[in-house]
Amino acid sequence: MKTSPYRPDQSNLAYSVGVTLDRFIKLKQSDFPFASGELSQLLRDIALAAKIVNRETNRAGLSNIGGAFGQTNVQGEEQQKLDVIANIRFMRALSKGGEVCAIVSEEEDEVIDLQNNSGKYVVAIDPLDGSSNIDVNISIGTIFSIYRRKTPVGSPVTTADIMQPGNQQVAAGYVLYGSSTMLVYTTGFGTNGFTYESSLGEFFLSHPNMQAPENGAMYSINEGLEYEWPAGVQSYVKSCKERKFQSRYIGSLVADFHRNLLKGGIYLYPATLKNPSGKLRLLYEANALAFIIEQAGGKASDGSRRIMDIQPESLHQRTPLLIGSVELVEDAEEMIRNAESEITGINH
């Protein structure tokens, strides 16, 4: 094609801003032959709520919405003001869209039955992970899981709709509110990341088909609890130090996970003497991140089992979590198995 002598070449005057989240969702809608647009709309609802929470987070230091709210949640953890605000924002977005019949939230004691029996989906969500870091301006996040209900549409919600293992998820994702705000999600066809462009008010595809490195030289764990870890975890962390791995621990699950997803590494929150069942919640933290990491080529385990194969027995069930690059997780599992075998052998 020749450039008209009367019309100079304009190709370099404006760069392409890329594919928006909304357009990407529409392009991928055909991946779900059973869906008729509800899942796509649900993902858009979550993205809208994330934009609002992003705004609230960015103005927290100016509007007196940082700090403690003065109450504790069902976990016995002190709620921050932004915990409450984020919960309200996501509850509104999920309830008004019409696609959801029930919600499980870290900030709510019981299942929120929306009395919308025509809704096809159940959402499990941690509205604001790492909220204790808000006051010191460290990255925080939102984690969500989406399940297709088991009971027929039109009938009341039952326990069977809620207590589904992670391998039944139809979508999962997280939002990272940091130096830039990102939404990362999967629908079982790879993991894709979108960065928020605040001046346009849109998420744009920035990290297509994300792949976790198979190996890495980074580990993330709260080393202040070292003397409460099981012997196998102690051995594994010692081996990381002997191999001169880098220790990186922010204290915000989403931020630690995101870094290891991009650069290669392992995040560990094992059982401890204080929390023998682990601390992280299965339904709305571990399952979502497990789905995402597996779709990116990584692995998630409780030390002996695949996270997504665990059948939940209670709403706020906790689990140990080892998640990240597949070779690192498998190394940790092997050391945990060996340590348990030694203990069993001594007991016999």
Write up what this structure looks like.
With 348 residues, this protein is α+β, with helices and mostly antiparallel strands. The chain has helices at 21-28, 38-58, 60-63, 81-97, 159-162, 231-242, 253-263, 282-295, 326-347; strands spanning 68-72, 78-80, 100-105, 112-113, 121-129, 140-148, 169-177, 181-186, 191-197, 202-207, 218-220, 246-247, 266-269, 280-281, 299-301, 318-319, 321-324. It is built from 9 helices and 17 strands. α2 packs antiparallel against α4 (81-97) and α6 (231-242) packs across α9.
- What multimeric state do the chains show? single chain
Task: Give the distance, in angstroms, between the N- and C-terminal Cα atoms.
Answer: 81 Å
Stretches with pLDDT under 50, minimum 5 residues:
none
Rg for CA atoms: 21 Å
Global mean pLDDT: 89
What structural class should be given to the helix and strand makeup? Answer: alpha+beta
The backbone outline, from C-alpha atoms, is globular
Strand proportion: 15-25%
CATH class of the largest domain: Alpha Beta
Q: Give the CATH topology of the largest domain.
A: Fructose-1,6-Bisphosphatase, Chain A, domain 1
Compute the number of structural domains. Answer: 2
Major sheet strand order: 4-3-5-6-7-8-9-10
Give a quick account of the main beta sheet: strands, pairing sense, barrel closure.
Answer: 8 strands, mixed
Enumerate how many helices there are, as a single number: 9
The CATH superfamily label of the largest domain reads: Fructose-1,6-Bisphosphatase, subunit A, domain 1
The total beta strand count reads 17
Gross CATH architecture of the largest domain: 2-Layer Sandwich
**Strand/helix succession:** HHHEEHEEEEHEEEEEHEHEEHEEEH
Please bin the fraction of helical residues. Answer: 25-40%
InterPro entries: FBPase_C_dom (IPR044015), FBPase_class-1 (IPR000146), FBPase_N (IPR033391), FBPtase (IPR028343)
Domain Fructose-1-6-bisphosphatase class I N-terminal: 20-208
Pathway: Carbohydrate biosynthesis
Catalytic activity: beta-D-fructose 1,6-bisphosphate + H2O = beta-D-fructose 6-phosphate + phosphate
